[in-house]
């Protein structure tokens, strides 16, 4: 069993697609298939169900996945130790970030970091807040940047690093536009929301409960979509309202496609996440210092 086989197995387990794994790891598809086949044959254990052209982890694969991730995380820590002992900021910096942070806030910092430390390879994976936190906890990311609340992740250290304004948006001419929005109007209108686990959805739930004593289950949710851009497209199409970051909505506001409603919501804080027990590499510490 090699580290390369483990790396390929973990990526296939995440993507459940040989071709997508090959593209992510910059390998050929036959090389990916051969690595999985060799791993299974060497240990006489199937790790995936082959269903048509699709894959899914079987019971053995699900049991093996945490151990494989742990070994890769330990190997990455060993590489970091050698890099740090050399006194140079180099190697790989793995970052997991939720959508708003990754799209509108973090790129400027990463651009300056890349210019200052050209020997560091940056690996940014964009997901929602819950997925980014799990990546840091599991050792798949060195740092996480999220806009959502992380309440029960005791293994994570959470540090404020920025923030944004957060508002309700609708298409121009929507019945709620042009006047202060009342609680009963929020209950009667139709909503499009982000998916569960997203920081945007979580912050909306917090604001509605703390300001209006409204639960998400009280709303008439007509549509759930997996990105801010998709949500704003749903809003711009008319009839639905949603809550997103001002950063996400700015270009559509300038184009006259959506407008902010007169409804006070709380500002939102961006947090940086790191594991309490894993030391930061020189590269990770350099980004922290830059922030």
Automatic annotation (TrEMBL):
InterPro entries: LysR_HTH_N, LysR_subst-bd, WH-like_DNA-bd_sf, WH_DNA-bd_sf. It comes from the Bacteria. It holds the Pfam family LysR_substrate. Residues 1-58 form the HTH lysR-type domain. Keywords: DNA-binding, Transcription, Transcription regulation. GO terms for molecular function: DNA-binding transcription factor activity; transcription cis-regulatory region binding. Signal peptide: none annotated. Belongs to the LysR transcriptional regulatory family. This is LysR family transcriptional regulator.
């Amino acid at each position: 069993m090699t580290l390369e086989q483990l790396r390929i197995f973990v990526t296939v387990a995440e993507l459940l697609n040989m071709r997508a794994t090959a593209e992510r790891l910059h390998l050929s598809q036959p090389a990916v298939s051969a690595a999985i086949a060799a791993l299974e044959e060497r240990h006489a254990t199937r790790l995936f169900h082959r269903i048509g052209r699709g894959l899914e982890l079987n019971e053995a694969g699900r049991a093996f996945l945490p151990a494989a991730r742990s070994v890769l995380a330990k190997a990455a820590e060993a590489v970091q130790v050698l890099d740090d002992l050399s006194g140079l900021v180099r190697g790989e910096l793995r970052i997991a970030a939720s959508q708003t942070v990754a799209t509108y806030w973090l790129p400027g910092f990463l651009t300056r970091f890349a210019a200052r430390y050209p020997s560091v390879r940056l690996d940014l994976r964009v997901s929602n807040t819950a997925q980014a936190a799990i990546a840091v906890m599991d050792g798949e990311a060195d740092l996480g940047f999220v806009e959502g609340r992380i309440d029960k992740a005791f293994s994570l250290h959470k540090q404020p690093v920025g923030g944004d304004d957060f508002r309700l948006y609708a298409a121009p001419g929507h019945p709620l536009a042009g006047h202060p929005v009342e609680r009963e109007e929020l209950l009667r209108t139709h909503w499009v929301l982000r998916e569960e686990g997203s920081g945007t959805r979580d912050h909306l739930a917090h604001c509605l409960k703390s300001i209006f004593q409204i639960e998400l289950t009280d709303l008439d949710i007509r549509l759930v979509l997996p990105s801010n851009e998709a949500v704003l497209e749903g809003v711009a199409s008319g009839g639905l309202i949603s809550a997103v970051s001002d950063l996400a909505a700015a270009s559509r506001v300038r184009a006259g496609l959506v407008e902010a409603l007169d409804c006070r919501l709380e500002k939102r804080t961006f947090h940086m996440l790191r594991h309490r027990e894993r030391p930061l590499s020189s590269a990770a510490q350099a980004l922290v210092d830059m922030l």
